[in-house]
Amino acid sequence: MKTSIATVSISGDFEEKLAAIAAAGFDGIEIFENDFLAFDGSPREAGQLVRDSGLEITLFQPFRDFEGMPEPQRSRTFDRAERKFDLMGELGADLVLICSNISPLSLGGIDRAAADFAELGERAAKRGIRIGYEALAWGRHVSDHRDAWEIVRRADHPNVGLILDSFHTLGKGLSPESIRSIPGDRIFFVQLADAPKVDMDLFHWSRHYRNMPGEGDLDVTGFMRAVCATGYDGVVSLEIFNDQFRGGSPRTIAVDGHRSLLYLMDQVKRAEPGIAIQVPDMPARVKASGIEFIEFAADEGEAEDLAAMLRRLGFRRAGRHIAKDVMLWRQGGINIVINTEREGFAHSSYLVHGTTVCDIGLKVEDAGATVERAKALGATPFEQPVGPGELKIPAIRGVGGGLIHFLDGKSDLARVWEIEFKPEVDEAAAGDVGLTAIDHIAQTMNYEEMLTWLLFYTSIFETRKTPMVDVVDPAGLVRSQAIENAEGSLRITLNGAENSRTLAGHFISESFGSAVQHIAFRTDDIFETAESLRKTGFVPLAISPNYYDDLEARFGLAPDLLDRLKKANILYDRDDRGEYFQLYSPNYGDGFFFEIVERRNGCAGYGAANAQFRITAQKRALSTGVTAASV
Q1: pTM exceeds 0.85, yes or no
Q2: How far apart are CA 86 and CA 23, in angstroms?
Q3: How many angstroms separate the CA atoms of 73 and 115, rounded?
Q4: Residue 280 in domain
Q5: Mean pLDDT across the stretch 87-98?
């Protein structure tokens, strides 16, 4: 199958769009008429520009309000069509989309519409042009692909076929299963779009909130499985109307679009093994079982501050790299690396972002297969020279240009700490405080990046996305969505900031880009951990007493539990499965922080209801200069 995208899906002028679409790896484009009309050149020049870009014109669209018109409007529609055919001839396009009529003048009747298409098919055939008919979900008389197919069937002309659009079927709540009965050679074109499930007028929803397959909540995979079952092997295209995409980077959106199509077709191929479908071979989505390590880039002075904070959190220095200025800190199953090398990726990251998380190590089933799949889906691989005795650990670029390394149990990668680090005894260690694992990491980014990284994680790894929630910051909303594996051993939250006044936005501004803003450690008993932390000299983020008064009213907690929470500055939440406890460190630098959590009875939440109170406390600390270093 060939891949295509409508020019309306991305921002930029016509030439910018073509460059982005070609660079992303698409085979062709749908020319949306408005993009052509804004182009300062002839139709012939526009068509040549497309071909010079290595693309083909897969569709010209839209042609509106055609079928079922009374006279004299009917004659005028045929005249309009002839002029479009002239234009298409100069462009070098041979397929036009005609969407179902929405004019109040249009007359109903399947036979009337079929007769119009049969006549138009004759005219188109003389020009070597094909006509595709699409049912708009808000069409006046035809709003269902089944009715559109019946019109095409009755028109019975080889130059008249059906165009299917996933949004117009799924957005209206129609089952795609009826598509399976349509002959594949009568389907001329397939357009795909996903969308978040919202209660909204269909037209407004379609024109402003579509997104790439896999980024929304519609069953686009089920739709495409039904299409492929017909034997269709033509173009698969994206038609995305999205206000955010129109203001975003055309190259980023194009790459996301191509990734979404490859991911979708890979899913279809695995779900329907009997279907002949052309998609690049790639390993299946990778099972990731958790985070093996977090690496910070720092200079020597800031590394000492970070090390002091880790000691107060109960970590001990456990190893020194055999050849580099890299230290390993440990507690329970948590590995924290501090890299102060003066060359290499970590140093470059420090020069740009300051002290920050520059690398995440994920435990996966097969490290090599992970990179292979990631590359097939357009991710950027990463390599740098390795020295004697060092392992070559597979890696790709991730959020904010940071790295994601992969370790598995199939090779020496499982022994990286034994091979690359010399053990050390940390005489200054304060002692274990009961932290057992990394519960989750939170990556903060501009809101318009969220869908990109959501698709990145869910297409490469065997993970699921949770519903998006609004995190209330006194200066505005921050959108948050989690990526999780089925076991809950890998959790990554994506937090999208829309302005620099929020704590998340301030962090992005100060760190010059998207990055990990906080790391949450898990404990089995947060009250014991809090008591142990008190003995190490750790001072938690101070929470307003008013929060605890409200907590009592909301949850009806026992007085002794409420008193323990208040004394330790622990926040509380619960869901239908269990309870969630949170304890925060002071800010480190301009908004980075650590969190300690306890989940009871399988609680799956992240304490979103507490975010406003935590953020207010953090901002108060920033304004008064209270940081991890000062306490």
Answers
A1: yes
A2: 30
A3: 16
A4: no
A5: 96
Q: Summarize pLDDT for 122-160 with one digit per residue, the tens.
A: 999 999 999 999 999 999 999 999 999 999 999 999 999
Whether 253 and 302 map to the same domain: the answer is no
Looking at the structure, tell me whether residues 196 and 323 fall in a common domain. no
**Is residue 166 located within the same domain as residue 31?**
yes
Give the pairing type, strands 3-6 and 236-238. parallel
Please list the residues that pair with 190 across neighbouring strands.
164, 236
Q: What is the C-alpha separation between 338 and 293, in angstroms, rounded?
A: 11
Q: Which amino acid is it at 441?
A: I
User: b/e string for 482-517 if b means 16 or more Cβ within 10 A?
Assistant: bbbbeeeebbbbbbbbbbeebbbbbbbeebebbbbb
Binning pLDDT at 50, 70 and 90, where does residue 589 land?
Answer: confident
Specify whether 418 is located in the same domain as 453: no
Count of domains forming the chain = 3
Q: Is residue 278 part of a domain?
A: no
Distance CA 218, CA 186 (A): 25
Would you say residue 630 lies in a domain? no
Closest-CA residue to 2 (of 279, 282, 377): 279
Q: What is the DSSP letter of 13?
A: -
- Distance between CA atoms of 138 and 64, rounded to whole angstroms? 13
What letter represents residue 558's amino acid? A
Indicate the pLDDT class of residue 560, thresholds 50, 70 and 90.
Answer: very high
CA distance 136 to 240: 15
Q: Using CA atoms, how far apart are residues 225 and 354, in angstroms rounded to an integer?
A: 47
Same domain, 545 and 510: yes
Is the domain of 372 the same as that of 322? yes
Helices (H) and strands (E) in the chain, counts: 21, 25
Read off the pLDDT of each residue in 364-368 and give the average, rounded to a whole number.
96
Other beta carbons less than 10 A from residue 384's beta carbon: 11
**Distance (Å, whole) CA 286 – CA 408:** 11
CATH number for the domain spanning 612: value is: 3.10.180.10
Length of the chain, in residues: 631
Tell me which residue range forms the domain holding 399: 288-423
DSSP string covering 380-419: PB------TT-----EEE-GGG-EEEEE-SSSGGGGHHHH
Tell me the three-class secondary structure of 498-544, residue by residue.
Answer: CCCCCHHHHHHHHHCCCEEEEEEEEECCHHHHHHHHHHHCCCCCCCC
Rounded distance between C-alpha atoms, residue 167 and residue 203, angstroms: 11
Q: What's the token pair of residue 278?
A: 């052309």
